[in-house]
Amino acid sequence: MNSRLETRGGRWGAALLPLFAALVLAGCATAPAELPTFNLPAQFKEQAADTQGSWTRAQPAEAQPRGDWWRSFNDPVLDQLIERADARNTSVQAAAARLAEARALARSTDADLAPQIGLGAGAARSAGLDRNQSPRPSTLARAGFDFSYELDLFGKLSGASDAARLDADSRAGLLQSTRLLVQAEVAQTYLALRAVDAERVLVRDTVEAYRDTLRLTQSRERAGDVAELDVARVETEVASNESDAMTLDRRRAELEHALAVLVGDLASDFDVGAGEWSTALPTIPPGVPATVLSRRPDISAAQKSVLAAQARVGVAQAAWFPDITLTGAGGYASNDVGDLLKWSARSWGIGALLALPVFDGGRREAGVQGASALLDGALANYRTQVLVAFKEVEDQLSSLRILAQQSGVQAKAVASAERATLLSNSRYRNGMISQLDLLDARRSELQNRRQALQVKASQYQATVGLIRALGGSWDAQAVSLAPTDAQQAQVAAR
């Protein structure tokens, strides 16, 4: 008797050994790494703060409203263009479709946590399929429902559900990032177009001035006051400036066509009429804290991707645990279709299934390693996004600072060139200088005026670039960069 009990005990121990090993491995499983935090300076370097200030941390907050930041430029045409781009831009539509796909996948993954119930009916006629069945043909009809429910004792299903939800959240952040990128591109393209319009006016006015000079010079050449060389010089200036005007016409057409694509229109049907460049240039308030980077949706998307990768590491580790499924079936079964729905034909069954692979050739271990590698990649991408965000803001701040200085210097150059042209014209009419000196003075004035326009255009471009780098606005509230307690609890549970 004792030997039989010992034999049975040994058999039970051998049978339970895989389950015990799985539980031991679960206990030794390494928890996923926590989301890294960054010490963010209270001010950007380019703000040239008098003091270094305190250090703080901030969390991406994609739920905060971005606001209609482009309205600060006070340009109705720009407002209309961005509204059209929000509704019709194909990149935004594609990003929205990817978000809808991710949310549908998350709902599909959530369905694995719920009981699965199905209805079915069927009939089969057979004979002699096994030794216990009569060789005479018989019919078996069945109608009823099936039930199955997998117990999520080890968090594998809930972990997959959390990962899918975080993927959807990441897609939501990417949609915000795409929308912000399109808005910024529309604003920058439109402002570049208006800058070209202003430059075209300047060049065409210059062409008309040179044409007036050419007519005067030709009249003086016919009177014998000047040589043919003077006429040739003015004709060269007229042709050169006409060529510049045509180059600006081509540039404007390209910008208008690019704007048509951004707002989702055909270039052949799109037109932005020439207008005066009266767009306001907003000033980003000084003392912007670095925590405003929390508004950048691409950082938020990268953070959610890290959390999703962490959840998938937990799912891969949970693959070492057994799968336990409860099953059930109920309905009617009869050898006569006419008796199928009689109470006497009722049938039912319940069961429980436990599955635990003993040897899988290293499949589960490879799954854990693959999930860990994906987590490492997500962490690296997250850190890259933060570093790039700081670079972009610092780039635009430095550009605005230097452009402001350059604008002041260039304004002085324009004033001096205008004064030089006025004096040269007076001296030329009095015969004190040659026509070549006058043309040089006018050429210098045109060059400085065009350069002043280009500096102004660069200021607008850098302002839009800074707003985009700040995540669409500059009044974000500071919060913690670490993940929320609920997110950390979900990751730890894996």
Beta-strand residue percentage: 5-15%
In CATH, the topology of the largest domain is named Outer membrane efflux proteins (OEP)
Order of helices and strands: HEEHHEEHHHEEHHH
Helical residue percent?
Answer: 55-70%
Determine the CATH superfamily of the largest domain. Outer membrane efflux proteins (OEP)
Biggest sheet strand line-up: 3-4-5-6
Query: Number of DSSP strands?
Result: 6
CATH architecture of the largest domain: Up-down Bundle
- Radius of gyration of CA atoms, rounded to a whole number: 38 Å
- The DSSP helix count reads 9
The structure class reads: alpha+beta
What would CATH call the class of the largest domain? Mainly Alpha
The residue-averaged pLDDT reads 76
Largest sheet: 4 strands, antiparallel
Give the domain tally.
2
Shape: elongated
Tell me the distance between the termini: 46 Å
Organism: Variovorax ginsengisoli
Keywords: Coiled coil, Lipoprotein, Membrane, Palmitate, Signal, Transmembrane, Transmembrane beta strand
Coiled coil: 436-463
InterPro entries: MdtP/NodT-like, OMP_efflux
